[in-house]
Amino acid sequence: MDVRENEIQGGQVERAALVKYLESRFGKQIVLGEISPLGSSTQDMEEIKQFGFGRPLLVNFYTKNGIEKVVFHSIRKNTFGREREDDRVSAVWLDFQNFNELPQHVPALDMMIRTKAGDIQSVRQAEDMLLLTGFRPGQVYARDLIRIGDEQKLNSMDKDRACVLATYLAQIHQQKHESEALWLRRLRDLVGDGEGVMGLTDNYSSQVTFTDIDELRSIEEQVNRWRWKLKPLSHRLRQVHGDFHPYNVLFESGLDFHVLDRSRGAWGEPADDVSCMSINFLFFSLQRYDQLDGPFKILHEHFWETYFKRRGDEEILEVIQPWIAWRALVLASPVWYPDIEDGVRRKLIHFAQKVLASEIYDYCDINQYLEN
Length: 372
Fold this sequence. Notes:
By secondary structure, this protein is of the alpha+beta class. Helix content is 41%, strand content 12%. A hairpin with a 5-residue loop joins strand 6 (112-114) and strand 7.
């Protein structure tokens, strides 16, 4: 597939850094020769300090044994699943692990990183990638919701915590980003990503009794119809967390909190975050009241009212439906939540179906979506 019209050139590498890397990689002194984009005529690069690192480059270098040739590749940013940095990292990793397994394939010699300083460093010995983060003390917000379900009442801080969470979302959602490509990617991930709707339905066993194949397929199809409906709305692309549920919010004390495990890129639909948290008030309430009721109803209303007061995005009620369905599939999943009753799962699946059929989401009366 030729995607040149969709590519965005990457960073640059200095010739000195290239020499340093090649000498380290091949264990001998080299003299750097001609460099040219693969498939084009050789260009004299002697007077050019830097060269673009955005497409395959044929590099000629000389050792005491004569001339050697290697090709440097970077994964070009494009609109075919290479929109984000993590896409391109994973593509390099996959290529390095697979090229040499296929007979007659051009060999993969190394896997490298380009540093902010412009150096090239090998990571070919890597077997896995690890992430190092800081530590923050506290308890996940889910502990609050479990306590509320057990005690069936709110304490003096519960409403304030729901308020600060809604305020936080309203604040981060103020930051807008212009990118139709990232907007379409976010919609595509909602439907087809391994953690999206299709990934969820693929992991529902055929042995479950609270739903069936036809119903799960229907949810997939409805969400995809919503994707086509939402594709023109790239003006809604905003800064998001991407997985803003009660197990990813850590309260230290009082109203001080931290968030964990931001997912699926920096930019998306605000309804993603709002639905992810707000549906959990229903989820915990279903396990106690069989509907949204009691203290959870109060928190749900307080969360939504605070969000609208701080941001006022009425259009969210016209786009949130597929994200609610996705989150309902997560909460109903025996893989993710193995200990809840099938009656709760059944209500969540029914909830998803009814919400997807609604043109405007009525957050003030979500119990109507639980009715047969």
